[in-house]
Amino acid sequence: QSFLTGFETADLLSILNPSWDGYYSGEVQAKPGLGPYAETILAEGYAMAASSYSQTGWAVFDSHISNSELYNRFLTIVTEEELGAPDQFYIIGGSLGGIVTIRDIEADLIPNPDGALILCGAVAGSINWYEAFDLRMIYEAVCDSVPGAGLPQPWYERPELLFGEVEFIDSLNKCTNISSRLLIDENDPLEVYTWELINPDAASRLNKILDKAKIENIYFLGLNLWYAVFQIPRLINDVAQLNGLIPFENVGIDYNDDSINQSSLRTIALPSAEDTLLANYTPSGNVGSTKIVSIHTSHDGLVRVQ
């Protein structure tokens, strides 16, 4: 938790960074890097190949096709340079790249990788989006009665990029006073207790949201909710992804709190919409003979251990 202490609300907006090399804006990165371990891997004598995603956001709708094209292009270059085919072949993916890696292996368009290294991978796949949707429903049930704390509506339409983000941070702060909470040491019970005494209503709402959404680290509340507010609408409305289909349904869902259950918005999804999201992508476990090493930090509040 020590990496996010002592900063202002404006810094939280900077951390969220909606551009993220095109993740939000849809601008594909022209010259992708080889990742943080390139120097070590290249020093061991391996060749590396990488590309940006041809699809940004939740890129698993076609990432397996793009990566098979990358693999074939790599083999073409190897042949042209008369280097000989590689004896061993591995895939590396972190965060979103984790589920991309799993889909690459299960799609079998890249033949028989010897191994894969997954770093904090979102390997549970599409279920991550259902958790984000539930977080928004919980937040709205808790905070909608607070003046100025409402989120952009309707929930399935994408807010404006810059001004929408500023309004989002302001709304979150009005409900939870998170800007002042982020200034204290979460590991100091006295500081937490003092903050809760000074901000009793905000503390009550904040603790309820964290508890019901099962968010252990307060620093990830803004980031996780950002995904729910800005990325779910993009996932729904992108013509190359769900193309207007709404896959989220919470009729009959028990949020383990009477007031939230009574006031939360309830939605119904068409089975075809649910099937489309789950197909892009929910792992089957059919990885063949590929050996997989998966490493995950226990303090990742965005992509939980999966």
Strand coverage percent: under 5%
Largest sheet strand order: 1-2-3
User: How many separate domains?
Assistant: 2
Please outline the major beta sheet: 3 strands, parallel
Quick summary of this structure?
It is built from 12 helices and 3 strands, in the order αααβαβααααααααβ.
Layout of strands and helices, then pairs:
Blueprint: H1 9-16, H2 38-43, H3 63-80, E1 90-94, H4 96-107, E2 115-119, H5 127-143, H6 162-176, H7 178-181, H8 189-198, H9 200-212, H10 221-237, H11 258-263, H12 271-278, E3 291-295
Parallel strand pairs: 1-2, 2-3
Helix pairs in contact: 3-4, 5-9, 5-10, 8-9
Quick tags:
globular, 306 residues, mainly alpha, disordered N terminus, 2 domains, 5% strand
Question: What can you see in these coordinates?
Answer:
The protein is mainly α. The chain folds into two domains: 9-19 and 126-278, no CATH class; 38-124 and 284-295, no CATH class. The chain has twelve helices and three strands. A three-stranded parallel β-sheet has the order 1-2-3. Helix 4 links the parallel strand 1 (90-94) and strand 2. The longest helix has 18 residues, at 63-80. Mean pLDDT is 87; it is low at 1-24.
